[in-house]
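ingest -> validate -> predict -> emit
validate: passed (alphabet ok, no gaps, 457 aa)
predict: started
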Amino acid sequence: MMVGQLQLSSHSLDNLPVRDKIIKIIHSALKAVDPYTAVGRMLRLENRTLWIADKCYRLDEFRHIWVIGAGKAGFPMTQAIVDLLAEWNPRGCVIVKEGHAPVNQLGNEILIREAGHPIPDQRGVEATQEIIRLLKHVQDNDLVLCLISGGGSALFTAPAGGLSLQDLRQTTELLLKCGANIVELNQVRKHLDIVKGGGVAKLIFPGQAVSLILSDVLGDALDIIASGPTVPDPSNYQDAYNILARYELIDQAPVNVIQRLELGMDGQLAETGKPGEACFDNMANYIVGSNYLAAQAACTAAQEAGLNTMLLTTYLQGEARQAGQFMVSVIKQVATSKQPIKPPGVIIAGGETTVTVHGDGLGGRNLELALGAVQGLSGLKDVCLVTFATDGGDGPTDAAGAVVTGDTLRRALEVGLLPEVYLKQNNSYQFFAALDDLLRPGPTLTNVNDLCFAFAW
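emit:
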């Protein structure tokens, strides 16, 4: 990731007296979870022995070293492995989001494949099949390094028996639009796909494997990140069915999906990987970066910039527009009562909100959170709210987030933009685009969820 080249600009940001401090804080947060550095921190090579945390692997004893993976951070994670282990000529295949691969090969034999996100596409299916074919050659004297990061659920896709790619696409779209959170979405996905829910661990066995994971979920739950391809799955078919029922999607979901879940509930299909299965004995899983790490780094940078600082939470969740209103209340408390910190200061929140889609507009959770704050911040002086997706892209957009100030509503009304209308349409992207208040950094090549910054000075 080229943090130094990250460009951030918007009308409101460029006119703030704290502009440079905001940019420094965001840069510091991203640098802390740079995937290349994060992998390098976890691995150490000494006397031809690879140390990963407290485990050691004598590399000359392995027939092959394989590298597989999926996620938005896949390219720099793979580059770190190639640079460290070039002498052993690792081979494999890693899937990344479209636009996240500067080249299509690293080292001599590691292929980089691009695929669609957040809705899976045929490229992802074909790349996943490449990985499955590769894993069929793994033996017990092989070492497999799995590189997992956010976005892996969509990119790493192998429809289970009786299902098509279209079945998975339609189910994913339904769950995204109804406001299901990432835990619910991935519990369903795990029961419709052969590589999720421990499926990769089953394919690797009896080979030895290590999974290096860049977390993009609340609490760093290993079974949820990228739908847990290398860890046991605590959920079952009944859980997946109940999620669809909770959102009244049983009649809308593809018939093949419902039939598969019903067969699973009847015990006619094998479950996902469960604790105690032998395939997990040879699998070690490590978190190399997280939202909390990014948020901590942002706090440190803010303090160094002379701001009073508070990390409010890294569990921000719920409806995005309501989270925006909550952040307004936080800003007002600081601005009017100088609590819980005194200006100049910033309160930082991390997490992942959701959007229940009712309109046909364009946007994502960070943009909708920002739009939900526009009216509440109206008229306040010397404050702003900055939202930011750490991967550089909010949902299906090219924006990471937006900047909201006490002047945003006035500027919007002057050009005929009504926040409530754009919220109803779920059209937050077009609202902020018209004001030139989108943040468009481009792909950051990392992904540890979202950050939200409430500034007062």
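DSSP finds 18 helices and 16 strands in the chain.
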